[in-house]
TrEMBL record:
Top-level taxon of origin: Bacteria
Family to which the UniProt record says this protein belongs: Belongs to the universal stress protein A family.
InterPro entries on file: Rossmann-like_a/b/a_fold, Universal_stress_UspA, UspA
Signal peptide: none
Species of origin: Streptomyces glaucus
Pfam families, alphabetized: Usp (PF00582)
Domain UspA: 1-136, 150-288
Name the record gives this protein: Universal stress protein
Length: 290
């Protein structure tokens, strides 16, 4: 079954930027586009907000209007619209489950503030079973020009970042772009060394060669599957978030894995994803674990 790309809209200019990005990606991948807006009936005393049927019609008209902004630019693109009544987070998470990816607009209030991470955005990212792409307002097609890379973070063993690497290579193949695979490493405390780890480090020739070997092993199956995609292997000492952001200027898209967990104060998506979403100026794809 072929999944569509879903764009969540809410009538804002930010969501229209996300919709435009989703439409271009759908055309590149040969997929359909689904435009979704969640809403709740909200009667307001003293204000003519209409009854439930009236509000439903307003939302449907708004979603149809949003869809028209991309159908004119992409005449061959298959576009459908939905305006379900319900909780925003639940609706978008459900929509993501049946999609290749969910695309949302980024509502920043400055150059270093990302998409509603304290509210809807973080909850959707944490709960979605499929990739979620955040697109900043003002994103332009020119940013996807040749020479800009798909930057992806890799950590741990080959399976730990398999989903993120798959997404990065698929996107690069659709765009004719280069993948820059980034692996950050830090000096571990002495007590963290075990006899087994010391032996592996000795065989690799030291810490940095060990990290380079680990990255090469993680990339091997994706290089074989996508032989035409150029790859840059980037290994650097430092925190993962800082190293990724140091190369963000080269990126047309940043791809990071998600480490969602529940706490007493709500959902958390992991420090690396959180930091990149707050500071990267390019679109960011957050990929759930397998």
């Amino acid at each position: 079954m072929t999944r569509p790309i879903t764009a969540g809209v809410d009538g804002s200019q930010e969501s229209l930027a996300g919709l435009a990005w989703a439409a271009r990606e759908a055309v590149r991948r040969g997929l359909a586009l689904r435009v979704v807006q969640a809403w709740r009936y909200e009667p307001q005393e003293g204000v003519d907000a209409g009854d439930r049927d009236t509000q439903a019609r307003w939302v449907r008209d708004a979603v149809t209007g949003a869809a028209r902004t991309v159908t004119g630019l992409h005449p061959g693109l298959e576009v459908s619209t939905e305006a379900p009544e319900g909780d925003t987070v639940g609706t978008l998470a459900d929509a993501a489950a049946g999609s290749e990816m969910l695309v949302l607009g980024s509502r920043g209030h400055g150059p270093v503030v990302g998409f509603l991470l304290g509210s809807v955005g973080q909850q959707v990212i944490a709960e979605a079973a499929r990739p979620v792409v955040l697109v900043r307002a003002g994103d332009e097609p020119a940013a996807e020009a040749a020479g800009r890379e798909i930057v992806v973070g890799q950590h741990g063993g080959p399976e730990d970042s398999a989903a993120a690497l798959r997404f990065a290579f698929e996107t690069a193949a659709a765009r004719g772009a280069t993948v820059r695979a980034v692996r950050a490493w830090t000096l571990p405390p002495v007590f963290a060394y075990s006899p087994g780890s010391l032996r592996l480090l000795d065989e690799a020739g030291g810490l940095e060669p060990y990290e380079k070997k680990a990255l090469a092993e993680a990339l091997r199956p994706w290089r074989e599957r996508f032989p035409d995609v150029p790859v840059v292997e980037h290994v650097e000492i430092g925190s993962a978030g800082q190293v990724l952001l140091s190369v963000a200027g080269r990126a047309q898209l940043m791809v990071v894995g998600r480490r969602a967990r529940r706490t007493a104060v709500g959902a958390r998506i992991g420090s690396v994803a959180h930091g990149v979403l707050h500071h990267a100026r390019c679109p960011v794809a957050v990929i759930p674990p397998k």
